[in-house]
Amino acid sequence: MRIILLIFFSSLPCFSFNQNLFPKIERSKKDIQSGRILSQVLKDLKSKRISAVSVRSLTRLLKKKNTVFSPYKGWIEDIIAVSKIKSIKKFKPCENVLEKDRKDALYKLLDKYCYLKFIKLYAYMPNKSFEVYGKHLEEYLPYYLFPLRREFITFLKRIKGRGSFERMVSDRVLKVYAREAQSFNVRILPHILITSDLTSYIQKTGLWDKESRSFYQKKMSALAKKIGAINSAQSLNRVQIEEELNKLIDISRRNINIINQNFARRLFIITGRKLLAGGRYPLAKHSFREALSLAAEENYNDSLFLYLWTDILNEKYTEVSKIINELDIHGKFENLDSRLKFWVAYTSEMTNKKRLAEHYYNSVLESHPMSFYAVMSIKRLKVISKKIKDEINVGAIINPVYASASIPLEEYSDNLITAFKRIKIFSELDQMDFVSHENHYIYRSPVRELLKNYSMYPVSSYEELKEKIVLHMVSILHEEQNFLKSFTIILKGIEAGRHDLNFDFLKALFPKPYMAEVKRLVGPKIDPYIIISLIRQESAFNPLARSRVGARGLMQLMPATARSMGRRISSGALNNAKTNLKVGIRYFIKLYKKYDRNLIYTLAAYNAGENRVKRWKREYFKNRSLLHDIEAIPFKETNLYVKLILRNLYFYKLIDGYKEDSEMVNKIFDVSIAKNVLSSS
Question: pTM (2 decimals)?
Fold first, then answer.
């Protein structure tokens, strides 16, 4: 894939993402009504039902032959067909649905409905006929067992005591567990026949025994708390801590088939963090090493980083390098996440392997161009490479020609115009599953199906044409203030290699709604880009956004926080953009002043609370480097939050071509984002 990332500004192209460039797409009231019908059906499927009202509405929709929604005809017909299934003998429509290999979210919901429909109907199968659908059961069992679904337990209860039917189901359950090499879930045992084969399998692989697991996990938790208590004591009890840590490790290793390995891994991470905060570095490293030994593929990167982190924190890069060599991390480099890649590169730099470091930093830029670590890699490349001065180009310089103009509406095929109409309607109705479906259609379709006169364009320009079409789709989402979905579409497309990161996509990823109001409210007190960067992360510019804990609006303010600013503001008032900005900016400036204009502490406090930052300053923020301080933030959510806002800030500055910041405190291109330089050099 051609990676395009222009990092500094001396030759930025003079064009921008402007949704006004794109032709307006119109839709009728009838189209909107049809969209509402489909939206209601989707809600039905998500609640595992298909109502008679929805079926009647879909039937009328088919009769009207609405051409805008004709691509959904097959899906609608499938829904109507499966809704009519009343017995297992009439299950064929669902068989047809489940046989199709699709990853589309719309059909996944229909698949789920059919799986649950089968298990309900199969429970009442006559004994003389149950074998007929035994193969279906075995085929569908992984869906019911991994994870174990309550609907399947209900099914097992219904067939309890039905002789050969119960035996057949029990045999097939054991067969699937053996095939998947899984420990048996203890919740199933009361509801199936206990055979000699089942007993042998349990003895061989272990049992997912909730009581045994709970006993050992409680014992481990108690030991971890004891270690934490000793660690918090004033006197240095290193020997005692080491003894208790070894006991914890021993229990974990002896009962590896009983305890939940991810639980044990997280416990060792929590223990390691506490020891780290107490300055017990060798013991912390020991705990992190045990966590790494328990890591599965999906959490290996996190566990490996923490194992390296103790030595990184103490700037023992020779030790870090030894571990990297011992674990053959260089050989696994391409599979690492952006954080590990950066720190492996940094370790190479600090151990005088400059050429290798430069190669690794460039790898971060190529594989994770939109990450915080890409920004930090740019910083390090500027330090170690004499060739790099004011500008870095990765891959190739952006071509400004095609990015500055849209495709005329008359060039669009009828299929593409109707797809855009549907996107507009579904965006208005906030039905993002349908928007994703349309996005997949556009990505999958060749250019000849999207443009009428595609032959007038050279084949070499097809990729650029497709990018323009995607940008038009993004502009429709922006019109409806669905920024978050537009971000997802662009980033997933880049990650999948469907298009490059060009400057127009960058502009679309970092829009600036509310900028005029933000500038008015902050005045000269604070850089407005900081606030815009924060809003992008907090709410994706959705004034009605609400978090699971009750934070509201653009700046995700808790009602209690708003009231603490000396204003009688109702929770509902925080959904008003102007009110939210006014209170949120006032609160942010208060924190900014409190932390002596240190942006890292300010952002951490905004996300996690002032009391936590007070404790973190005492226990974790002990470094001369702000980069290390960011990495040391113990809350994963806050850690990522701070990094993403700094990343946002960098790209907003890049897009608008800032050569100098008015505030020394936020000189982002030297990556100086607090009173100290964000650098480890």
Answer: 0.86
